[in-house]
């Protein structure tokens, strides 16, 4: 009997110790989490700067800035300005066509969470293979190749094609509404149904404004059957 009582007292003492450890862990858990969050926040830094040439201090556009060992990065704009978020101690790799790659390791002991820098890039000489230019055998072949040559459109021509009326009408006809437009249409329809609740809704057959809109749409040819095979983004034939 005495041995049984000793075992019970020993088990109760062990349970009390476990409960004490659990209570202490719950008490100190918020402080530990707060310390870890503060340390994680201090390790994040936003690097903003500009990429320039080392000899003439000209801005270098379209420079790829990648975090080494990770699939994250950014590209400098037309003025060479960039901004990227990384961790202190990470290595940034700067690369651009015609320039040598440059690695920059972010110091671990940088104060604050923002840092500005100017990254200088050195020109890189690339030796291309020899290009041999040969004339066309005959004038007729040259004329044929010159006429059939596809010259790419410049930015002005691309902007004109992207904003022409036929293209915009085709996009508005065949592009489905997004979530915001669908929600707005549903709410408007629901509000209209509640507005005429308990009474007969008006009939547009007696509305002169509706008849005017119908006649204008009829003149524009909105009720004609559209041939989807004629629709094309690259040309002006949209089947209208």
TrEMBL record:
Keyword Protease: yes
Top-rank lineage group of the source organism: Bacteria
Keyword terms: Carboxypeptidase, Hydrolase, Protease
Any one GO MF annotation of this record: carboxypeptidase activity
Any single Pfam family the record assigns to this protein: CarbopepD_reg_2
UniProt KW Hydrolase keyword: yes
InterPro entries: CarboxyPept-like_regulatory
Record-given protein name: Carboxypeptidase-like regulatory domain-containing protein
Organism of origin: Chitinophaga agri
């Amino acid at each position: 009997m005495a041995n049984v009582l000793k075992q019970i007292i020993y088990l109760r003492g062990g349970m009390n110790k476990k409960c004490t450890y659990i209570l202490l862990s719950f008490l100190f858990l918020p402080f530990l989490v707060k310390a870890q969050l503060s340390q994680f926040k201090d390790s994040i830094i936003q690097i903003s700067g500009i990429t320039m040439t080392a000899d003439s201090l000209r801005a270098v556009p379209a420079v790829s800035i990648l975090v080494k060992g990770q699939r994250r990065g950014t590209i400098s704009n037309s003025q060479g300005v960039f901004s990227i978020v990384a961790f202190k101690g990470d290595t940034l790799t700067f690369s651009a066509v015609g320039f040598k790659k440059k690695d920059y390791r972010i110091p671990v002991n940088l104060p604050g969470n923002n840092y500005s820098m100017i990254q200088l890039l050195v020109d890189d000489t690339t030796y291309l293979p020899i290009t041999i230019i040969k004339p066309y055998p005959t004038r007729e072949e040259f004329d044929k190749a010159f006429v059939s040559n596809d010259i790419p459109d410049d930015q002005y021509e691309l902007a004109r094609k992207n904003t022409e009326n036929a293209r915009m009408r085709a996009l508005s006809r065949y592009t489905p509404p997004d979530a915001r437009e669908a929600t707005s249409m549903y709410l408007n329809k629901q509000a209209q149904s509640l507005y005429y609740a308990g009474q007969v809704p008006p009939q547009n057959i007696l509305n002169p404004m509706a008849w005017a809109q119908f006649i204008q749409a009829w003149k524009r040819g909105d009720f004609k059957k559209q041939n989807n095979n004629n629709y094309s983004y690259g040309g002006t034939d949209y089947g209208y």
